[in-house]
Amino acid sequence: MAKQPRRPSRPRGPAGPVRKNKAAPAERYPPRKPPKKTSPVVFDAQDPTTEEARTFRLGAVAGATPGKWIDAWKDRMPKVPLELVPITVSTQKSAIDEVDAALVRLPLTDDALHVITLYDELPVVVAAIDSHLLAADELTSSDLDGEVVIPLLDDALSQLDLPGTTLASFAPLSAENAIETAASGVGIVVVPMSIARLHHRKDVDYRILTDGPISTVALAWPRDRTTADVDTFVGIVRGRTANSSR
User: How far apart, in whole angstroms, are the C-alpha atoms of residue 140 and residue 212?
Assistant: First the structure.
């Protein structure tokens, strides 16, 4: 009988651990990639796209109505607040130095100022609700003969001339107090229509003075301070859109 080849003997002793992943250690754990180089962070650096914080200050005489222009400003310049600053006609020339631009009443003569005429206001006569003057739809200067005119601290109608009237003997009053006094029947007040509407009361009414002086409202600002914000506001009052050219 032929002799069969001998099988290799198994190693004696406890079996070693079975390696499930036969890949080399270097393949199983590749070396980490070097970190990317980054620039140091500067926390106090300014964003070049951030606008400088500022406020547009708009002066306005009593009776001026900039509401629609202010609304347009808020839509077009949401990051620049508009501050409305009340000014008086008697001090409007010097007040312009404290604001970016101002709504004023003409006449205002100063070569150092840019002045753009905006609109005209009719003068009106304010009288007590039971005054005979209110029987007419409108009045002329001759209709006021014999009337007492109450003087104003801040007269918006500096060219008013009513030869047949008498000036009240007491000190000038603010427009609000003068209209309140007129309600008692002591006298009449002559002001631009917007001021009569501003201080409207149930015990007074007004009529247009057809031959009285017109009050013109204008926008004014110093020539040497024509900033980009001023240009924007000028464009708004002139009806330019945000995309229209000057």
Answer: 8
Three-state DSSP at 174 gives coil
Could you give the CA distance from residue 186 to residue 188 in angstroms, rounded to a whole number? 7
The amino acid present at 46, given as its one-letter code, is Q
DSSP-derived secondary structure for 189-207:
EEEEHHHHHHT--TTEEEE
- Which residue matches tokens 């032929």? 2
Any idea which residue has 């393949």 for tokens? 27
Sheet holding 56-61, edge to edge: 82-87, 56-61, 101-105, 215-222, 113-121
pTM of the predicted protein model: 0.75
Q: What is the pLDDT of residues 47-57, one digit of tens each?
A: 545 567 899 99
**Strand 113-121 vs strand 215-222: parallel, antiparallel, or unpaired?**
antiparallel
Q: Give the count of alpha carbons within 13 A of 8, CB side only.
A: 2
